[in-house]
What does this fold into?
Amino acid sequence: MRDLLDTSVWVEFLRGTDSPASRYVESRLVAEPATIATTEVIAMELLAGASGDDALAHVERLVDSLTLVRVVPALDFPAAAALHRRARRQGRTVRHLNDCLIAAIALRTGSVVVHRDADFEVLAATSGLQTRSFVDP
It folds into this structure.
């Protein structure tokens, strides 16, 4: 199964923290890099967060090395909106609509979202989304 690594775990890894999320990313990059994927949304967030030219070059190389799971607008945009509405109807709040888009892509492709972002646990609780959470308890 493919892992779709959210920006929240990439940030831990890129900052060089010794967090469980960072160690997980590092272990996957070493052992099974072909099973790690990204989307345009995650790539955009990572590129936007680069703090300088060297960091940007590093992120560009990283993003270019990953399997890209492309957004299919005709499928993923309506699915993301439906995920957001479903959560809201159940009294749950998804803070970032981009997370709904990432979840829609993961659901369409059968990917597991690896994250440190509570939004994905809300989405998992209100849909069939599979996640691996590194959210602090």
Summary: The longest helix spans residues 73-89. The chain has seven helices and five strands. Helices lie at 7-14, 20-31, 40-49, 53-65, 73-89, 97-109, 118-125.
